[in-house]
Amino acid sequence: MDNIKAYINQHKERFINELIELLKIPSISADSAFEKDVIKTSKTIKSALKKAGCDHVEICETPGYPIVYGEKIIDPKLPTVLVYGHYDVQPADPIDLWDSPPFEPIIKKTEIHPEGAIFARGACDDKGQLYMHVKALEYMTANENLPCNVKFMIEGEEEVGSESLSWFVKRNQEKLANDIILISDTGMISNTQPSITTGLRGLSYVEVEVTGPNRDLHSGLYGGAVANPINILTKMIASLHDENNHITIPGFYDKVEELSAEERAEMAKAPFSLDHYKKAIDIDAVYGEKGYTTNERNSIRPTLDVNGIWGGYIGEGAKTVIASQAFAKISMRLVPNQDWIEITELFKTHFESIAPKGVTVKVKPHHGGQGYVTPIDNIGYKAANKAYTKTFGVEAIPQRSGGSIPIVALFEKELKSKTILMGFGLDSDAIHSPNEHFGVFNYLKGIETIPLFYKYYTEMKK
């Protein structure tokens, strides 16, 4: 694999252009208006895998959006790596905060990405990182140095809970049989300091509804005399944290793992600048659970956040009403050992119990998933670390992530496989936000590093 850099340099412009064409398709799984675009993206991925060297590629129908499956089996006796990724993207809202249209990709130089970054929805999460694997396969098949078998499972519902993926995995265990699962849907510390994500938080996502009077009321005639659902909802939400930003739901922390002082000290060795962190998101102070650092709050501690809240009149001008209903969407990031179904039920019971008379409350669960931790003594981790060390010149640092990929725990349960999270994004890439982007350096570095994982993993597996 000594010629990989030369291959990337030779095909660099094509690699970038192919990704740009993929990013132009608005594959928003959360909005049914984009159904045709999501389907079109699955067909585009199928074609790309075929061209990259897969001997067999198919679009597998599910109760929801299809899953693209591909494989290149060179010898059944050799190890098999299963690559997972997703071709759906988050909604682009709010559109007016984008500096350029979200589905008209452009390359711009930034302070962090002097070589340029591709700005578009899905650039980093996950089309750019997924496409690194497609181009890595192309390199290995074109140069006849693929050292093991490879399978691809690319879904279209990750951003809405991966419900169909669970259905698919349970019904296709033999087809998906593997020795290790490889995912690039996470990040690393910086472009000079790679890291490997060894832990993911779980997720419980709910929607709440507070209903008061049977219609919107005149706030002058009824104000102060009836319960205002918006006022009530905001008070109920505020009560979910105490003065130390500790979550007040009874039983919420019962299964939370408390890391030892030694483990926390190891985590603290990762390079981190609080000043840079605050500057990057334009805040003057951090905020969170008392007794924990910023990096601990967003990785080893559970959270509860309001993702959206609405009700009443929000149009231009004034309309003096007491709304009949108020709504909010709430997500809870969970740590390993917290069961998302149990936490969802704890939330529902507690939220309904704190509702005052005069309103009714409904809690609607949306989706969720378990947290996950992978051991660093796993040969998959060791192979990934060796690959990063070869291409970056320094060893990777193990790091727990604040994000969630709920299907990772599902994979271990159903396929009995460990997952290695080889991410190449950065915290500054604005995933899920306006102006999402992915560095050209990161994209090409991923294509360079991934084949080395295959090489080292196969050697260690023998």
Characterization of this structure:
- The chain folds into 2 domains: 4-200 and 372-461, Zn peptidases (Aminopeptidase, 3-Layer(aba) Sandwich); 202-256 and 302-369, 2-Layer Sandwich (Alpha-Beta Plaits).
- Helices cover 33% and strands 21% of the residues.
- It has 13 helices and 18 strands.
- The protein has helices at 4-23, 35-52, 127-142, 163-171, 219-222, 229-238, 261-267, 274-280, 294-297, 340-353, 379-392, 407-415, 440-461; strands at 56-60, 67-72, 80-86, 106-108, 117-119, 149-155, 180-183, 195-200, 202-211, 217-218, 303-311, 321-322, 325-334, 360-369, 372-373, 397-400, 419-421, 437-439.
- β1 (56-60) and β2 form a beta hairpin.
Task: Give the key terms.
globular; Aminopeptidase; four-stranded antiparallel sheet; alpha+beta; single chain; six-stranded mixed sheet; Alpha-Beta Plaits; 462 residues
Mean pLDDT: 96
Write down the CATH topology of the largest domain. Answer: Aminopeptidase
The number of helical elements comes to: 13
Number of E-state strands: 18
Report the biggest beta sheet as strand number plus sense, adding barrel if it closes: 6 strands, mixed
Low-confidence stretches: none
CATH class of the largest domain: Alpha Beta
Looking at the overall shape, the CATH architecture of the largest domain is 3-Layer(aba) Sandwich
Shape: globular
Determine the structural class based on helices, strands and strand pairing.
alpha+beta
Strand order of the largest sheet: 1-2-6-3-7-17
